[in-house]
Amino acid sequence: MEEPLFCVNHPKVETGLRCNRCNDPICVRCAKLTPVGYRCKKCLQRQQSIFYTGLPIDYVIAAAISLAIASGAALLASYLGIFLAFFISPAAGVLVADLSWRAVGRRRSRYLWIAVCASIVVATMGVAFYQSGALEGHTVTSRDLLRIELGLFVAMAVGTAYSRLRLT
Fold first, then answer.
1. pLDDT tens track for 127-161
2. pTM reported for the whole predicted model
């Protein structure tokens, strides 16, 4: 008669299931069904880490590219008004995401989307401060910074860039 197996993560849970990669005993809470069978969380993390080939410098490169392109696009959207900003914003998000991804050599990074989206927000805030006169020493009110076309731009551009980069 075989000795009972206990889950490597939950030592009090008896199991008959094993990870098909490392052969560790796992309970149903720890098992994840994959196309080739059940795997433990540890093996799944190792397998997914292979796909991320990005370097730490990629975040800096992507942020710099995004900041430059998003600044120009936000400035353009602010001058063209709400109606045209509605059409420019998603295109700007695609442009920022794709050029940033190409600038880092199309390497996959787990958090590249955060660097790009944060740069879009910072660029849009910079345009709002520039247009309000804050950089020239004028007193700025919250009304000067709350511009509908810039809010529309940042929401749509960030959403588009996020959806483009989150899947890469």
1. 988 887 766 766 766 666 667 889 999 999 999 99
2. 0.71
**In contact, 73 and 157? CB cutoff 8 Å:** yes
**Are the C-beta atoms of residues 153 and 88 closer than 8 Å to each other?**
yes
Distance of CA 53 to the CA centre of its chain: 15
Distance CA 157, CA 97 (A): 9
Element (H, E) at 5: strand 5-6
87-110 pLDDT, tens per residue? 999 999 999 999 999 999 999 888
Question: Which pair of tokens denotes residue 120?
Answer: 């879009």
Give the residue extent of every domain in the chain: 5-49, 56-166
**DSSP annotation string for 12-68:** T-EE--B-TTT--B--TTT-EEETTEEE-HHHHHHHHHTT----HHHHHHHHHHHHH
Tokens linked to 152: 């529309």
